[in-house]
Specification:
The structure is a single chain. By secondary structure, the protein is an alpha+beta fold. The protein has 2 domains: about 5-15 and about 30-280 and about 290-305 and about 600-755, Beta Barrel (Thrombin, subunit H); about 310-575, no CATH class. Helices cover about 45% and strands about 15% of the residues. Helix 10 (about 310-340) packs antiparallel against helix 13 (about 375-390) and helix 17 packs across helix 24.
């Protein structure tokens, strides 16, 4: 579940309940592991709550589900509480996931796939920790992983009134935004206290209607402690991603380090393990349907408060090009990995991330269609319209909200699909990036009297060309480019970019795709974008002044795609002028209409709590998925080939037992089998990867690592009947540590509570 970083990346570049009803357990071969067939509809356990919200009615609601912790243990400014045990894991400048402290020595439990980039970064063909796994027998063996940092949320406090009272109401929305930005910086500076160990951020919630200040303690030295091999941590691979049943040991241990004085130093040999204010005990015990589950983490983005006009835009103009672009990129990465073992290691994290994003967009498109999401949102908007028109004061305040939102997305829709396709084409393809190197050169060729391109300029251009060429697997890049152009061909005829009309004759999609295949093969053999000798001749010859010197079709395609991106981006930006003020009023009106005291905001990668219960689901008529998978089921999936290759040390485990040693010891269920993964109704999304799953007493019973494909659409519109969280059972984690990998040092460090 890693689609988070792509949404954040694109935004940066473009500036853009009821009580659970469960039937009586049915006895079966699973013994205490009940098989429960629920009602046709599931309770709605949705809710990504800010921790200060977990009080009053929200807290009472959670106690009806099974929460037993007192309020001040969940969130407190005066004493250690759950937020001190949770970390936001950042990978570079992008969101990564969630982790939790499980010892007083800074030991962190998170997902294998959250640590994946770090594992890759310290691996090589000779020491491939993806294949072999890694365990630091001594603390001195723990490996620093670059580009990782930790943010511990120590405070979430509302500052809406502090900001609002300092903003004159007479200002326009844009003017208010500028004043608010200055006020935010003042508040941040005041709270920061020049403390290098903390960072302060102020976030908008409910589309700007409320603001919260979040204070984080920052840690910059993160080290790899223990990771199972990929055949366990990613068992099932991309095939099983977002699917159920799962049998994946998606866990890894990291450790946080600080300078001896507690400051957030980057890696230094003298750094020491961080001492958190709170850590989580791990519970070894049976689970059954209906058991309470609590998750804490950093969900990336949800869009539940957006209008039907937004949903129509997403469904028709955003999701399809994203799916096409990610599919093309993945094919190229897979081809590259198949040719070079060393590069397969280097691009493993990127392949996994792209595959995850692709499956996400496929699931979103399917969910929108299957559940008629846009139509349902239109019904909500009609209800809002009728509510507004029923009162003259509301008509004055909110009467123009829906028309303004409609106008906004009409503007966005003029070139939205072209924008997304061209943006990702440029990001994903080095041939197009190579073309961009020649753009200034091309402009010079059109005005040869200019002295802009000196011999030094030419040499610098050629050096850039050779550098990018050295990073390029040409076959893979041409596969990507072909796929991207075919994606453009798949658009409706009136929506296709001009580049397709310039170079191809057919307008019928399938014929056009065949033409693209032949065109790329032919042009790649004589293009300066794929052959440095041709590029050198182009750069250094005096023939640059001749018109025929710029008949390189791949370059002309590259140039056209860049121009289309810039034009579509400029057009797309215009819709924000209408969208932002209308969206803020839309959400304000919706909250006023619904009058729900338990209203939670959309996710935005801030710490959230969700409550649910262990629960299966019905993915289709006549089909029911039980909420548990077992070691026996994993062995049934074993093929001997990745991604379903159970390591021999696991396959042989039972065979090596003596008659006096029961299988799996205390980690087994009463049937003698080991539970690997389980389902719950917790509300999560990308960024929640690695979130601890707690029981009612605040003990860790699992580790969230995925959602199910049927429930992905709940990022936009909650579908409680099928939306589920997939987690690793804590017993599987401890079994691997104790019985298989013998991580004695870590087992002595963490607090394990056994029933």
């Amino acid at each position: 579940m890693r689609h988070l970083k792509f949404g954040a990346f694109l935004a940066a570049v473009l500036l853009i309940g009821t009580a659970c009803r469960i039937s009586e357990p049915v006895s079966s071969a699973y013994d205490h592991q009940y098989v429960v067939y629920p009602e046709k509809t599931s309770p709605d356990h949705s809710g990504m709550w800010l921790l200060p919200q977990v009080t009053g009615q929200v807290y009472s609601y959670m106690t009806t589900l099974g929460l037993q912790m007192p309020e001040d243990q969940i969130y407190s400014l005066d004493s250690p509480s759950l937020n001190h045990a949770i970390v936001r894991i950042n990978i570079g400048d992008s969101g990564g996931g969630t982790g939790s402290f499980v010892s007083q020595n800074g030991l962190i439990l998170t997902n294998h796939h959250v640590a994946y980039d770090g594992i890759v970064s310290v691996s090589s063909a000779d020491h491939n920790f993806l294949d072999s796994g890694f365990y630091a027998v001594e603390i001195e063996d723990e490996i620093p992983i670059p580009n990782y940092s930790l943010y511990i949320p120590i405070e979430q406090s509302e500052v809406t009134e502090e900001i609002r009272k300092r903003v004159p109401e007479s200002l326009t929305h844009r003017e208010q935004s500028l004043v608010e930005a200055e006020i935010r910086q003042d508040l941040i500076k005041l709270r920061q206290h020049d403390d290098p160990g903390t960072t302060v951020e102020i976030y908008d919630f409910w589309s700007g209607n409320r603001q919260f200040m979040v204070v984080y303690r920052v840690i910059n030295d993160v080290r790899l402690v223990y990771a199972p091999e990929e055949s366990i941590g990613k068992f099932g691979g991309d095939t099983d991603n977002w699917m159920w049943p799962r049998h994946t040991g998606d866990f890894t241990f990291l450790r946080a380090y600080v300078a001896p004085d507690g400051k957030p130093e980057s890696y230094q040999p003298s750094n020491v393990p961080f001492k958190p204010e709170m850590s989580l005990p791990i519970r070894v015990g049976s689970l059954k349907p209906g058991d309470f589950t609590l998750t804490l983490g950093f969900p990336g983005n949800t869009y539940r408060f957006e209008s039907s006009y937004a949903f129509g835009f997403y469904e028709n103009q955003q999701f399809p090009p994203l799916q096409y672009a990610f599919s093309a990129y993945l094919k190229g990465l897979e081809h590259e990995a198949s040719q070079d073992e060393e590069f397969a290691v280097r691009n493993a994290a990127e392949r996994a991330s792209i595959a995850n994003a692709l499956k996400y967009y496929e699931g979103i498109r399917s969910g929108f269609e299957r559940y008629n999401i846009t139509r349902k949102k239109q019904e909500t908007d009609l209800e809002f319209k009728n509510w507004v028109q029923a009162d003259s004061l509301r008509e004055v305040r909110y009467g123009q909200v829906l028309p303004q939102l409609e106008q906004s997305y009409q503007i966005a829709g003029q070139m939205g699909d072209i924008l997304f396709l061209t943006f990702y084409s440029i990001q994903f393809n080095k041939v197009l990036q190579m073309g961009s190197l020649f753009n200034d050169f091309y402009e010079y060729s059109q005005a040869p009297d200019s002295l802009f391109f000196s011999s030094d300029d030419r040499q610098q251009l050629y050096d850039q060309v050779r550098l990018l060429d050295s990073m390029m697997n040409k076959e893979s890049e041409l596969i990507i480019l072909t796929g991207l152009l075919k994606a453009m061909a798949a658009l409706p005829e009136e929506r296709r970019p001009l580049v397709l009309w310039q170079f191809f004759d057919s307008s019928e999609p399938e014929e056009l795709k065949n033409e693209i295949d032949l065109f790329i093969k032919r042009q790649s053999e004589t293009s300066a974008l794929t052959d440095t000798s041709i590029a050198a001749e182009w750069i250094y010859t005096e023939m640059i002044y001749a018109e025929e010197a710029f008949n390189d079709s791949l370059y002309l395609i590259s140039r056209d795609i860049y121009q289309m991106f810039e034009q579509s981006r400029d057009n797309y930006f215009q819709h924000f002028n209408y969208l932002e003020p209308a969206q803020e009023l839309y959400v304000k009106g919706m909250m006023e209409m619904q009058q729900d005291p338990k209203q939670y905001p959309d996710a935005n990668f801030t710490l959230r709590l969700s409550a649910g219960q262990v629960m299966g689901y019905r993915p289709a008529d006549g089909v029911y998925y039980t909420p548990f998978t077992t070691f026996s089921g994993m062995l049934e999936k074993h093929t001997g080939e990745e991604p379903f290759n159970v390591p021999s040390k696991l396959r042989n485990y039972k065979n090596n037992l003596t008659s006096t040693k029961p299988p799996f010891k205390q980690y087994s269920n009463s049937s003698g089998d080991l539970v690997l993964n389980f389902l719950s109704s917790n509300d999560i999304t990308g960024g929640n990867s690695g979130s601890p799953v707690l029981n009612g007493e605040g003990e860790l019973i699992g580790l969230a690592f995925d959602g199910n494909v049927e429930g992905i659409v709940s990022d936009y519109y909650v579908v409680p009947d099928v939306a589920r969280t997939i987690s690793v059972d804590a017993r599987y984690i401890l079994f691997m540590m104790d019985e298989i990998d013998k991580t004695v040092r870590l087992l002595e460090e963490i607090e394990v509570r056994i029933e």
